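Folding Task

Wanted — backbone structure
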Amino acid sequence: MKIKKVKFFTFLLVSFLMTKIFCNSPIEISESNYSFELKNKKIIKVFILDSSLNNSKELKFYEQKNNDSLVFIGTAETICLEDGQFGEGFQDIYYEEDYIVIQQSFGDGNKLIISKLYLKYEKRKKIKLKKYTEQHIDRFSDEKDFTEIEFNIPKNIYINDISSEFIYNLHKNKNQ
């Protein structure tokens, strides 16, 4: 009987250690995180992690429940800058007028492009792209124009559909 107890406690200890080593929560592996309380009193947490792509980030979205547990919603990839390309890539994520906004920057010729994705939480733990805008700023001009251009976007684009390639395609296909 005593040997069974020792084996059981050894098993529990090994299980605990394996969980700590291999099952990191998003909080433990995240570079930084954001929390947004939406108008409907839902709390959305966003964890920012380094992506396998150069200069890219992975944004993991979770809904926080009343008992503080997190329910995974989806992942978005931020813009990936090519070697030698100017811009910052991912700049910020914030909550504005019922939208979660992801702001990024990248270069296109002599212009700096400030890209903004406007996301909205929908029922059943879904986050949908509702609007996409850009500001085109001539880096070499003394007069800076910060006019925001709104783009037509495809219908039914959700958080898991957003990637660097998706953003570059929106930018190239300026179907305004």
Observations:
- Residues 20-28 have pLDDT under 50 and may be disordered.
